[in-house]
């Protein structure tokens, strides 16, 4: 029999936007405490991909999903798993979508993920010679062009890492 947290994580993949919204709001709330983080970490293999998929949803769902990922990424093991499942690439893709309303949260997520060697390696794209350094180039370019001082400061933190 599934636990309440297992069911909650399952609801993140619900076809009903209302159910998904309610579930992601609860998950975001749980990530605000150490006990909540520890409880959710048990379900990381299912939770992290589900939250990652929700980053492309409408703002009312993508924003709490992004906030949950930012909070979860403060845990070393969870940050490593996020890098493994490709959240650096997902974050960079969303960061440069013209209509993205969660860019600032993607920058915060990248700052957290690049505190670790695996996150840095993923950001540098060292495994792909043709793409190597592309993300860093994009970040530097947007830092130089940034009209928002706060966003620019956050992007600079990624580069410094």
Provide structural commentary.
The protein has one domain: Leucine-rich Repeat Variant. The termini are far apart. It is mostly helical and 161 residues long. It is globular and about 45 Å long. Helix 7 (87-95) packs antiparallel against helix 8 (103-113) and helix 8 packs parallel to helix 11. The chain has eleven helices and no strands. This is Protein HGH1 homolog. Keywords: Repeat. ARM repeats lie at residues 46-87. InterPro entries: ARM-like, ARM-type_fold, Armadillo, Hgh1. It comes from Cannabis sativa.
Give me the secondary-structure topology.
Layout: H1 4-11, H2 17-30, H3 34-41, H4 44-54, H5 59-72, H6 76-84, H7 87-95, H8 103-113, H9 117-124, H10 134-145, H11 149-160
Helix pairs in contact: 2-5, 4-5, 5-8, 7-8, 8-11, 10-11
Total count of helical runs of at least 4 residues: 11
Q: Which sequence of SSEs, written as H and E, runs from N to C?
A: HHHHHHHHHHH
State the major sheet: none
Mean pLDDT: 86
- What structural category do the secondary elements indicate? mainly alpha
Gross morphology is globular
Radius of gyration: 16 Å
Amino-to-carboxy terminus distance: 43 Å
Strand content: under 5%
Key structural traits:
about 160 residues; mainly alpha; about 0% strand; Armadillo; ARM-type_fold; Protein HGH1 homolog; Hgh1; repeat
Short structural description:
Keywords: Repeat. This is Protein HGH1 homolog. The chain is mostly helical and about 160 residues long.
């Amino acid at each position: 029999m599934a636990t309440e947290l297992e069911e909650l994580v399952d609801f993140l993949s619900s076809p009903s936007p209302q159910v998904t919204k309610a579930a992601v709001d609860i998950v975001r709330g749980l990530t605000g405490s150490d006990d909540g983080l520890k409880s959710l970490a048990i379900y990381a293999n299912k939770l992290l991909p589900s939250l990652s998929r929700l980053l492309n949803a409408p703002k009312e769902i993508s924003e709490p999903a992004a906030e949950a990922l930012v909070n979860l990424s403060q845990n070393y093991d969870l940050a490593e798993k996020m890098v493994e499942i490709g959240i650096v690439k997902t974050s960079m893709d969303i960061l440069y979508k013209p209509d993205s309303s969660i860019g600032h949260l993607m920058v915060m997520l990248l700052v957290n993920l690049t505190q670790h060697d695996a996150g840095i390696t993923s950001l540098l794209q060292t495994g792909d010679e043709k793409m190597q350094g592309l993300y860093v180039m994009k970040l530097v370019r947007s830092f130089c062009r940034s009209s928002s001082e706060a966003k620019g400061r956050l992007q600079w933190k990624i580069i410094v890492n």
